[in-house]
Amino acid sequence: MKQRILFAFALIVGMGVFFLFPRPHDPGVPPGNDLKESIARVSADETIQVNVWMKDQLDLREIKPEVAHLSWPEQRVLMINLLKQHARRSQEDLLKYLAHKKGEVEVVKTFWIANLLTVRARPALIEEISNRADVALVEADMVKITPAGAKSAWSESMSNNAESNLKVINAHKLWSLGYTGEGVIVMNIDTGVMGDHPALQASWRGNVAPASESWHDAVFGTTTPAIACSDPHGTGTMSVMVGLDPTTEDTVGIAFGARWIASTFDCSTFEIRSSVFDALQWGVDPDGDPNTTDDVPVVINCSLRSDADALSKPCGNNYASLINTNIETMGIAVVYAAGNQTSPQEDDSMAIPARHPDVWAVGLVDATDPNHIILRPDLEKVLGCYESTLDLRAPGVNIRVASNDPTNYRIVSGTSESTPHVAGAIALLKQAFPNKTGPELRDALFATRDPQLKLIDVEAALHHLGNVVVSQYR
To answer: Topology of domain 146-465, per CATH?
Structure first.
């Protein structure tokens, strides 16, 4: 395998300028007002944290045809190495420049999943950075990023129960064939996970692998699953993917045989955009070794939205979307909640980043209604940007999920709950078709969705993908 990868690497390097120095990735919109507003709030001697997007971006979709002859693990090794090499070389001059500004700037983190770095500096230096020829965009890092959830009510544990919303997408029919997500890893980026909840405790990957490969928290410093900001949101979304209490057989999750890993993001008063970038980058290679794949999730669930960007970048940030497309090109599906806006005052359209055409957005239906009515169909519309970017729907009304109280559950509604239905469905399909990538499995859900409702049907997707063999785990 190593010889094949080295040959492909040499081929791409030999093609030189086009791939390793690709065309600038067009941002599509001018820099947002959030940076100007952040600068206006501080004095000349104070510092602010910003994300610096380099002009020279590597879009893995452009090299995909050149590595198509390699296996997926081989492609993954090559792509990660190319991204790291490209970012290292492209950022070198800027980092040398900043090194000479010792005492004036802090380089918080350099990224490779896309070509950017996060720095903290005074406004005058940030202005200098933004005027550099090799810099495409400088944006404020401290914005409002929130879970895309809604109000909730308490519920109790139930015995020998499988929630009706799971049956609406025909998950139970895959269970009857023995497909429960066994051997598959799923991930969420959220407000942490109550790892001690009975519905989640047994399925954490950290039970059978190093905790550092199964839990990521670069914000609060925890080393095992924990709750961030006292918010049960992440516990709930994870339980929709994998939740099962093995003692009571209380099933709230779709792929209850799968293992889960998770990362927090900064959900403090001023949310940190780069904390989401950091979580996404970690999810591509949790153990830090591109040569291994047993640590890699098939899907990353993102039930979150960026409130500030809806006004400053109403069509989304093409640079940030490049992170998602690079991840997907490496075989991991990324799904985002469409949002729960309820009035024009809340920006009467789909949330960011879900509204971007390169991002897969999930809406909801009310599965408690016999007709599975669509709530807020106008959320598909993003005036002045794209006609429609909502791709799939799943149940999202009155969904019972795990809570931060290990003895209780919650009843919640929102696209935060519909999105992990899609992630869980991908995990079921992955067990049935282990050689398929996450995006390929999600494409099957898209191809077999209800033509009017866009509601997913995991059984239809299973048959769409090919011959079905009863799982050995049945």
So the answer is: Rossmann fold (3.40.50)
